[in-house]
Amino acid sequence: MEPLAVSAIKAWNQLLENDKKTETSASLGLIAVSFDQRNHGTRKVSALANEAWRSGNPTHAQDLFSIYNGALIDTSLLLDNLSSYVFPSSERSIVDNIVLGVSLGGHAVWQCLLHEPRITAGIVIIGCPDFVRLMRHRAAKSKLETWTSSEPPGASFLGSTDFPFGLLEAVRKWDPVGFLLKGHEQESTDGRFGPFTSEEIKGLRPFLRQRLGGKRILNLAGAADKLVPYSCSMPFMEFLQDVTSKGTSWLMDEELEVQNHVYDGVGHEMTREMVHEAVKFITARLERDRDGDQSGSRDSHQQSANL
C-alpha cells in the first residue's frame, strides 16, 4: 500500500505547486496512513487462518470475515487517536477521511463506509460488498460436502459447519448486503436485488441516507478476477446505481455518488490504471474540500487511511 499512498501524496503536492490559489490550498494537506491487516504482514500469528477451504482451512469463512471486520475496528481506533499523535499542539485538525483498500482491504472498505460516519469517501479495489455471495461461490468451486450434499446444491450451506449461524448473524450486523438488505434479499433468477415496492423503498431510503448519505464511493474491479469475481459484487453495485440514478423513486441521486469501473481482461490484481483512477479520485475529493473552505480557524489536513 505504501507506493499507492506515496503516489497520492505526490499528486496532491504537485497540484498545490501548480495551483494559483496558494493562500487557500496551502491550508489543506494530505496524510496517508497504511497498516497491515490483522494476521497479515507484521501482525501474522497463524498462516493457516489466511488459507481457503481448498488449502486445508476448515474455518475459512469465519477467519476471512473476522480478519477484515477487525480492520474496521482498527480504522476507527486510528481515527480516534491519530490527531493527538500527529498534532500534539493542536495546531492543525483533521477535517475529512478517505479509506482505500485492496482485496481483503477492499472488503473492509465497504464496512468502513457503512459503519464509520467519519469516513466520507472510500476506494474499493478488487473487494466485495457481499460476503455470503462470495462464500457461496467459493463453496461451490471447492465442492464442499456442505454444498454438494443438498438438493439443490447449496440449499443447506448457510447454517452448516462451514458457514455457522453465528457467522451469519455477524454478517447481518456488519456486511453491506447483509446489513442493508436484510429482509429484502429478493433474488430473481439472474441474482439481482429487487424489484422493490414503493413501500419497501420508503422504508429503506432513510436507512440508506443514515449510513451512506453524502458519501463518495469508487469501486474498481477486474472482469477476469477468479478469486473475488465481479459477479459477486455486481448485484449490489447495480442496486447502488439504481439508488443513485436520477428520476427514480429512491430520490438519492444528489446524496450518494458511486463510480464503478470494471476492467476487461484483468484478474485479481491492482493495475496501473486502477492506481491512476484511485489517485485521481483522492485529489478530486481534496479539491472539493479545499474549494468548500472547510479549514476553519486552524490549518487543516485531510487524512487518507489505507488498509
Structure description:
The chain has helices at residues 2-18, 22-25, 60-86, 104-115, 131-142, 145-148, 165-174, 176-180, 198-212, 230-243, 272-291, and strands at residues 28-34, 92-102, 119-125, 216-222, 257-263, 299-306. The protein has 307 residues and is an alpha/beta fold. A six-stranded parallel sheet has the order 1-6-2-3-4-5, with helices on both faces. Strand 4, helix 10 and strand 5 form a beta-alpha-beta unit. The model is unreliable at 293-298 (pLDDT under 50).
Trace the largest sheet across and list its strands.
1-6-2-3-4-5
Helix and strand element order: HHEHEHEHHHHHEHEHE
Strand segment count: 6
| Total of helices | 11
Q: Beta-strand percentage?
A: 15-25%
Q: How confident overall, as mean pLDDT?
A: 90
Radius of gyration: 20 Å
What is the approximate shape? globular
Measure the end-to-end span. 8 Å
Low-confidence stretches: 293-298
**Helical residues, percent:** 40-55%
Major beta-sheet overview: 6 strands, parallel
Structural class by helix and strand composition = alpha/beta
Q: What attributes does this structure have?
A:
alpha/beta, 46% helix, globular, single chain
Question: Summarize this, please?
Answer:
This protein has helices spanning 2-18, 22-25, 60-86, 104-115, 131-142, 145-148, 165-174, 176-180, 198-212, 230-243, 272-291, and strands spanning 28-34, 92-102, 119-125, 216-222, 257-263, 299-306. By secondary structure, the chain is of the alpha/beta class. Strands 1-6-2-3-4-5 form a 6-stranded parallel sheet, with helices on both faces.
